[in-house]
From TrEMBL:
<dbReference type="InterPro" id="IPR029046">
    <property type="entry name" value="LolA/LolB/LppX"/>
</dbReference>
<dbReference type="Pfam" id="PF09865">
    <property type="entry name" value="DUF2092"/>
</dbReference>
<feature type="region of interest" description="Disordered">
    <location>
        <begin position="249"/>
        <end position="269"/>
    </location>
</feature>
<dbReference type="InterPro" id="IPR019207">
    <property type="entry name" value="DUF2092"/>
</dbReference>
<feature type="region of interest" description="Disordered">
    <location>
        <begin position="1"/>
        <end position="24"/>
    </location>
</feature>
<feature type="compositionally biased region" description="Polar residues">
    <location>
        <begin position="1"/>
        <end position="12"/>
    </location>
</feature>
<protein>
    <submittedName>
        <fullName>DUF2092 domain-containing protein</fullName>
    </submittedName>
</protein>
<keyword id="KW-0732">Signal</keyword>
Length: 269
């Protein structure tokens, strides 16, 4: 009981700070703060300029439990990308391992535990390959916004609110600028490296979700413009795997290839 009481006192601290901030700025009007826009765009420009990249993405997302309060599930993905037409995502986490390969000609989804593999012809760019993977196979990566050719465009098209929060030194052992924005129907808080301009943490809430479930994307172990071997994007060890159709798991008669969980969190796009 004493421990829970102490936790309650600590939990009240952020709410008291927020209340004081609200009292200090009663005339705040939502809009587009130029400082916040500059931080967001600098991150997008840094990502767009990279010819290749490697990073680790840890996605944590809430899902309602049977008794009401949400449970939290997590997925860890090791990502390699080379523009304009190569991508590899090895996903681990609270579920079976899955592997995704795109080499400019084909998209391959492989489930090692179940020994199932699905292959389909691919369009010539990463953007279009990601769209086809979602439209045809229901495969979605919450860090898609980091990979596209023009990360800023999708944010700008639906941008309604943006404001600068301040600096933090607690995320990924680096100094970050914190910004918040609303694009489309998503509220996003982002921690972006002050020096390297790389997104480090993305917090998202869908405004049309009555439960306001939270999605958190942590991006670590960044390497920009690494030299990547050509075979890095070719599926390996699929011998003996049963071929299945590349289609949505909920399609009629679809076998059980399970793509990474759909837990979208907007990033600095």
């Amino acid at each position: 009981m004493a421990a829970s009481g102490g936790a309650q006192q600590r939990a009240n601290v952020p709410s008291k700070v927020a209340a004081k901030q609200a009292q200090a700025a009663p005339d705040y009007q939502p809009g587009l703060d130029q400082h916040a826009l500059d931080v967001i765009k600098s991150a997008c420009d840094r990502l767009a300029a990279a010819k290749s990249m490697a990073f680790t993405a840890i996605v944590s997302y809430e899902s309602p439990s049977r008794i009401g309060p949400p449970l939290v599930y997590s997925t860890r993905s090791e990502v390699l990308m080379q523009r304009p037409d190569k991508l590899r995502v090895i996903a681990l986490g609270d579920g079976p391992r899955s592997e995704f390969y795109y080499d400019g000609k084909t998209i391959t989804a492989f489930s090692p535990a179940e020994r199932l593999v699905a292959v389909t012809d691919a369009p010539p760019t990463i953007d279009d390959a990601l769209k086809k993977a979602y439209d045809v196979g229901a495969i979605y990566f919450p860090f898609t916004d980091v990979l596209v050719a023009d990360p800023y465009k999708d944010i700008a098209d639906g941008l309604k609110i943006a404001f600068y929060i301040g600096r933090s030194t607690v995320v990924d052992d680096t100094t970050t600028d914190m910004v918040a924005y609303v694009t489309g129907d998503v509220f996003v808080q982002a921690w972006i490296g002050t020096e390297d301009k790389l997104p480090r943490r993305i917090y998202a809430v869908y405004l049309n979700d009555p439960a306001r479930l939270r999605h958190v994307l942590a991006l670590t172990h960044w390497v920009l413009d690494p030299q990547l071997p050509a075979n890095a994007f070719v599926a390996s060890d699929t011998s003996g795997a049963a071929p299945i159709a590349f289609e949505r798991p909920d399609a009629a008669n679809a076998p059980g290839l399970k793509p990474p969980p759909k837990a979208r969190a907007a990033s600095a796009q």
